[in-house]
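Worked problem 6 (solution included).
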Amino acid sequence: MNRYAVAAIYKFEMARMKRTIFQSILSPVISTSLYFIVFGSAIGSRITEIDGVSYGAFIVPGLIMLSLLTQSIANASFGIYFPKFTGTIYELLSAPVSYFEVLLGYVGAAATKSILLSFLILATAGLFVPLEIAHPWWMLLFLFMTAISFCLFGFIIGIWADNFEKLQIIPLLVITPLVFLGGTFYSVNMLPPFWQTVTMFNPVFYLISGFRWSFNEIADVSVMISLAVISGFLALCLLTVWWIFKTGYHIKQ
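Solution. The predicted structure is:
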């Protein structure tokens, strides 16, 4: 493996974060702070606790997951799409760099940015509510697996998209609604039976449930089921990327 090529792609993508510090870092942190202010004041005054945990602490894992999923997709999809848009992708294709090295560089940088942002949001949340992480290693496992999985998903979107509208349509119209309806601000046990059943078909629900369990040991489903879902999604993304490169439906499209 050409580690210099991977490092060059990785460093270039990380440098782009510094050039867009407001969009990449400040904007998500400010948005999350507004969620705490609005939902903490409006709903928190009416729902003081859920399963013995304060409402403010209860929504922290969901808000982190909301930013993690959206930013992972955005970072990875834009990272590979922009060279296609500007035409500089042909310089990359003509270089002695394998597809695996391209994938490792772009996805690695996107995952790093998403994980750093998650820790910043976690620190910001600590300014609003007292936080405890019951299972820090499980928290890190869910965090890393989710970041890598959705960065791979974003990479796939970036390859598929041929305009900026396609680049945004899945994160905005699919992922964000799934996160909001996946238990970010509530427990599924608070829903009527019909909607509890509907929620079970939302894959993001399992990610939020497992991630929340790592914080305060509250989960709507078994943590092993949550782990199986994120592992399955990771495997599916890897298989899709392999198929893309294997069949030739790749970044030249």
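Discussion: The longest strand covers residues 49-50.
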